[in-house]
Structures are given as structure tokens and as C-alpha cells.
Write a structure and sequence with these properties.
It contains one helix and eight strands; from the N terminus they run βββββαβββ. The chain is mainly beta. Strands 1, 2, 3, 4, 5, 6, 7 and 8 form an eight-stranded antiparallel β-sheet that branches.
Length: about 130
């Protein structure tokens, strides 16, 4: 299982007020982690080089479990609410009731896409940047 916790602000689902905390539980089908070093290498005139590490940049590619048509408004609300790089939380290993590995993150470059899996069934693939 997996969990997403976000603050609804845009394209609100029926019955939701702006600023309300919302959750989605989904069976993440794929988790791919990319961790890169961000830094600079400086080479002196004598040929000695030195590397200065600024930070690690970690992104995770997630694919949701099956989303049925009746759940699409919640997912639309989620992507619209975090599309402006708003901070939200993911827990790829836990549930809302039993958190395991909650991480603060932002949607990476607004990248997400719905994938048609069959009549009335979709999955979403999206990339988050851990902060």
C-alpha cells in the first residue's frame, strides 16, 4: 500500500473546502529512486582538483494502483493542488492509519500522466522530488 497526504487548493472535489487536508491510499506498483550528487569540481592551475558537494538531489518515480473513474476527481484535485510545487507527503510503504516512511516532497516539474488501463480504469505515473 501507499499513501499521499496533501492540502486541497485547486480543482476541488465536491464537498471539499480550500485548505482542507486530504489523503489518497493507493497500491504503488512501481517505485524508482534516482539520487544524484549536486556540486562543483574546481581544478587549480597546478592540476589539483577539489570537489565540493552541495547536496543530494533525490527523485522518485511512482505509479499508482488502479484508479477507477469515480476516483478521478480526487486525483485531479491532488495534481492541481500540488502542481505549483506545494509541499505534500508520500509514504510509499505505509497507509494513512499506519505510516511507515513518510517523506516531504514536491511534484517534479509538473510531470504526471494518466495511463489508460482498460474501460474506466487508469493509473497515474508521476515524479516527486524529496525535500
Amino acid at each position: 500500500m501507499g499513501a499521499i497526504i496533501y492540502t486541497a487548493t485547486d480543482e476541488l472535489e465536491a464537498g471539499t473546502t480550500s485548505g482542507q487536508s486530504k489523503q489518497i491510499e493507493t497500491e504503488f506498483q512501481m517505485i524508482d529512486v534516482d539520487r544524484r550528487e549536486i556540486g562543483d569540481e574546481v581544478r587549480s592551475l597546478s592540476g589539483v582538483s577539489e570537489y565540493e558537494l552541495d547536496r543530494y538531489d533525490e527523485t522518485i518515480v511512482l505509479k499508482s494502483g488502479i484508479v477507477v473513474a469515480s476516483e478521478l476527481p480526487r486525483w485531479r484535485e491532488f495534481f492541481s493542488s500540488v502542481g505549483d510545487r506545494a509541499v505534500f507527503q508520500i509514504d510509499p510503504d505505509g497507509t494513512i492509519a499506519t505510516p511507515v516512511n513518510v517523506r516531504n516532497c514536491k511534484l517534479d516539474a509538473g510531470r504526471y500522466r494518466p495511463i489508460w488501463e482498460g474501460p474506466g480504469q487508469y493509473t497515474f505515473e508521476f515524479t516527486v522530488r524529496i525535500i
